[in-house]
Amino acid sequence: MELERCFVYVAARLGKAYRITGDRKYLDFMFSEFKATTDYLFDKKSGLYYRDDNYIGKLDKGTKIFWSRGNGWVFAGLTDIIRELNKGSKEYKYFVKLYQKMAKSLKKLQTSDGYWAMSLEGAHLYPTPETSGTGFFTYGMAWGVNNGFLDKDEYAAVAWKGWNALQRCVTENGMLGYVQPIGAAPGSAWPDKTEVYGVGAYLSAGTEMYKLAGN
Questions:
Q1: Which of 12, 27, 63, 68 has the fewest Cβ atoms nearer than 10 Å?
Q2: Which domains does the chain carry?
Q3: What GO molecular-function term can you cite, just one (predicted)?
């Protein structure tokens, strides 16, 4: 399982355990571990996460390596964590601020055709469409608009642009293509390559886009 997926999945489950039981030990542990990981792997200037410490300071032809799907797991996962927290709490404020900072960074990195490149700051190095990262980011953007965390005038167009890009990667038979295979860094994707996590991201995006269209 990819590292970022484990990272946010465990955090969201601990948040849910806190909400169900009311026992702060779950919340305190989740918050301290998430913050420690973020302090280590989050690049404050870029507003993005490194996949792991192997990529801190490493450059790909002069470009920092921020993997699209890895950041997608985190951005989408933050929505699950925020749902479990009490509004106004220090934890709630922390995660909302982090989510909004990532959204601001990701908005700037969306390509002209609506995708997010496999290496977020290296679109010129990875011009092939990629739908798993794009799916997660589209979902996160639409969720933020629908729930009042992101300004509609600024971010709805970002979500629609991402959604339209995803649509162009669905074959006549209904298969979502251009999903990068399981990995740990930017790589390759093909029009006939799909994976369940890419489809999951696409369907998640679709549920929020449906709500956005209704609004």
A1: 63
A2: 3-214 (1.50.10.10)
A3: hydrolase activity
CB of 115 closer than 8 Å to CB of 129: yes
Is residue 199 pLDDT above 90, yes or no?
yes
Task: List own/partner pairs for 211-215 with CB under 8 A and 24 or more apart.
Answer: 211/142, 211/146, 212/142, 212/145, 212/146, 212/156, 212/159, 212/160, 215/145, 215/146, 215/152
What local confidence, expressed as pLDDT, does residue 198 receive? Answer: 97
Do the Cβ atoms of 7 and 74 come closer than 8 Å?
yes
pLDDT tens string 89-112: 999 999 999 999 999 999 999 999
Give the C-alpha separation, 158 to 204, whole Å.
16
Go through the chain and tell me how many residues it has. Answer: 215
Contacts of 86 (CB under 8 A, 6+ apart): 92
- In tens, the pLDDT along 24-80 reads 999 999 999 999 999 999 999 999 999 999 999 999 999 999 999 999 999 999 999
φ and ψ of 89, to 5 deg? -70, 160
Closest C-alpha to 15, from 128, 92, 75: 92
Distance CA 203, CA 200 (A): 5
